[in-house]
Specification:
Radius of gyration: 37 Å
Number of helices: 10
Order of helices and strands: EHEHEHEHEHHEHHEEHEHE
Structural class: alpha/beta
Bound molecules: 3'-deoxy-guanosine-5'-triphosphate, magnesium ion
Shape: rod-shaped
Strand order of the largest sheet: 2-1-3-4-5
Largest sheet: 5 strands, parallel
Distance between the termini: 77 Å
């Protein structure tokens, strides 16, 4: 344990050094006035437990020990470090002020070896308990924050598609319900887009399943860029089907975004030699907006978008229907 003695009288310092050494305390440091004490304290890592007890003289050349004590106790880092006042002043007033200033104990001069030993031991016992409690609190805090982080990761994993890292169907359905409610509350229009890769079976057949997966990843990345508005959500809805929620978007907006998506995917120029539609990978896009079906459930919106997608497929693919 680390003890710091503050006393301006050399003979008292020598006496305390002697007594404390005899009591088995090895780490004792000495300063002679308030200013030195302040400097010493700022040098120490209090959070790391580099100071465990202060023996503080009341009458010092530059400051009053009681004032120093109340000043120190205002520092949060100092509140857990016991201070014992040491003084020749025996009056009740000084005693009361010492305790009021936050001192834990009081030793009168001339110093009795037995009394000093007992009071120091008792203060350090308390200090040890406080250190233990603080360590436990720190551990608990760390464990809690680790748990929170782990939960966050789990939550993310549970709502993310493993191949494309887009939102998965679970998160999509959740958000669709939320946005549906919000759109009704705000009396705003919500857009919904569904898209499906054209002749993706042929793509897999020609280039292999791995290439098919790579193609899905490229599309996902592009879709994230094409849907840049905050609040927009794009998800992998099924195998080679994607869906997007566009809050506060009416049918005109949906049409514009859907066409942007169709064009953007085509511009990736991913070769698809066996496609009857184009030499590159294309998508068919279906869209709708909620102001056409304010009553009912969000599933109706999905149905509408799906029907529109089906119509786009029937109309030759690589096109948009709303
Ligand atoms: P259409 O233009 O009518 O949509 O034709 P299509 O061939 O794309 O449609 P279909 O539904 O017949 O086939 C979808 C194909 O997508 C079949 C399946 O092999 C492929 N697919 C679905 N999920 C994945 C995936 O995760 N990875 C790969 N590589 N292929 C997938
Ligand atoms: Mg003094
Ligand atoms: Mg499909
Ligand atoms: Mg398809």
């Amino acid at each position: 344990m680390n003890i710091l003695v503050v006393d301006d009288a050399r003979e008292i310092r020598l006496l305390l050094e002697n007594y404390l050494r005899q009591a088995g305390y090895e780490n004792v440091e000495f300063v002679t006035n308030g200013e030195e004490l302040m400097i010493k304290i700022t040098e120490k890592d209090l959070a790391a437990g580099e100071l465990d007890l202060i023996l503080l003289d009341v009458v010092l050349p530059d400051m009053n020990g009681v004032e120093i004590c109340s000043c120190l106790k205002m520092e949060p880092a100092m509140q857990d470090i016991p201070i014992i006042m040491v003084t020749g002043k025996q009056d009740d007033q000084t005693l009361r002020e010492a305790f009021e200033s936050g001192a834990m104990d009081y030793i009168k001069k001339p110093i009795s070896k037995i009394e000093l030993k007992a009071r120091v031991a008792s203060a350090l016992r308390l200090r040890k308990e406080i250190k233990k409690r603080n360590a436990r609190e720190r551990e608990l805090k760390e464990a809690t924050s680790k748990l929170k982080e782990a939960n966050k990761k789990l939550e993310k994993l549970a709502s993310q598609d493993g191949l494309t890292f887009l939102a998965n169907r679970r998160l999509f359905d959740e958000r669709l319900n939320e946005e549906w409610k919000r759109a009704r509350r705000e009396n705003s229009s919500m857009g919904l887009i569904m898209l499906d890769i054209d002749h993706f079976k042929y793509y897999n057949d020609l280039y292999g399943h791995q290439a098919g997966d790579d193609c899905l990843k490229k599309l996902a990345k592009k879709l994230e860029k094409l849907l840049y508005r905050p609040g927009d959500l794009v998800a992998r809805y099924g195998g080679e089907e994607f869906a997007a929620i566009l809050p506060r978007t009416d049918i005109t907006g949906v049409k514009r975004v859907a066409e942007r998506i169709r064009k953007g995917i085509r511009e990736l120029e991913i070769e698809h030699e066996d496609s009857p539609v184009d030499e590159y990978v294309t998508v068919s896009v279906g869209g709708t907006a909620s102001n056409y079906c304010r009553e009912g459930e969000p599933e109706m919106l999905l149905e509408k978008a799906d029907k529109a997608l089906y119509a786009a497929k029937n109309d030759g693919r690589n096109c948009v229907k709303v």
